[in-house]
Amino acid sequence: MDKEKLASEIAKITWFHTFDFGNGIVTSGYDDSYSRVGMLHLPEDLSGKTVLDIGSWDGFFAFEAERRGASRVLATDSFCWSGDGWGTKDGFNLARKVLNSKVEDLEIDVLELSPEKVGEFDLVLCLGVLYHMRNPLLALERISSVTKHQLILDTHVDCLMTNRPMIAFYPGSELNNDPTNWCGPNRAAVEAMLKTVGFHRVEMVHQQVKFNFIYRLTRAIKHKLINHQSFRLSFTQDRMVFHAWR
Ligand SMILES: C[S@@+](CC[C@H](N)C(=O)[O-])C[C@H]1O[C@@H](n2cnc3c(N)ncnc32)[C@H](O)[C@@H]1O
Fold it and tell me: Torsions phi, psi of 240, nearest 5?
């Protein structure tokens, strides 16, 4: 596809992920995808590994796994790909074509995942999906059932003021004004849920805002005074990445 044709195809799509396709062609994604790669601590070499990317949307992390040598990558999604969100599957389809990728795709809800339907994978990516779940423990149970070795889980977290396992419930649009966000587990709850569904080792490998009490307090005051954001939420919410092994 020539540069002008590609630019015009890209312009027709509302992108979630940011792809740099070279020659100055970059998608205007909402997500700063390249900077997230480091935070996920994705293994550098995935040679010969099978990878499942759950809730893949435009597929950035599925294509990244393929680029790192994975022998088979399956990208799955349901909400956006079926046209229920503000995004579509068009970005995934175009990126796959441009990247000349062999990443497979399957439209399937998280709760429908099973070894019989999709198989089992060496590495499973569940990025930005858990907080969209009305039944997070059940979702993690389904995810565990298709994980042969390792899971990388990237999620919004809440209730960080306590070490007791707790999950905040968002019945409306409380989280980021988005009614598709349902839950905010704290670190202890994520770790406990992962162990409950069969992961024997769990490590938190990245926290977006470092948990230094004074730093968080100052940050929350600043957010309240400058951005008029809730002090309590700035203080108790964050984003974390977990690695878990079966
Ligand atoms: C915030 S986006 C994350 C996209 C990508 N994984 C990332 O981290 O950049 C959430 C994705 O989860 C998908 N999703 C939401 N609910 C789902 C469900 N029940 N089953 C499968 N996918 C779902 C959405 O369609 C969307 O693509």
Answer: -135, 155
Q: Among positive and negative, which fits the CA dihedral 232, 235, 240, 246?
A: negative
Contact 159, 232 (CB under 8 A): no
Q: Is 62 in the pocket of ligand 1 (CB under 6 A)?
A: no
Measured in angstroms, how far is the CA atom of residue 66 from the centroid of ligand 1?
19
Query: Which distant-in-sequence residues (6+ apart) come within 8 Å of 225 by Cβ?
Result: none
Six-digit token string for 49: 């590994």
Helices and strands (H, E) in the chain, number of each type: 9, 9
Ligand 1, atom 8, lies closest to the CA of 127
| Residue-by-residue pLDDT tens, the chain, 246 positions | 788 899 999 999 999 999 999 999 999 999 999 999 999 999 999 999 999 999 999 999 999 999 999 999 999 999 999 988 888 999 999 999 999 999 999 999 999 999 999 999 999 999 999 999 999 999 999 999 999 999 999 999 999 989 999 999 999 999 989 999 999 999 999 999 999 999 999 999 999 887 677 887 888 888 788 877 788 787 899 999 999 999
Cα of 55 from ligand 1 centre, angstroms? 3
Residue type at 198 in one-letter notation = G
Is the C-beta atom of 129 inside 6 A of ligand 1?
A: yes
Q: What is the pTM of this model?
A: 0.95
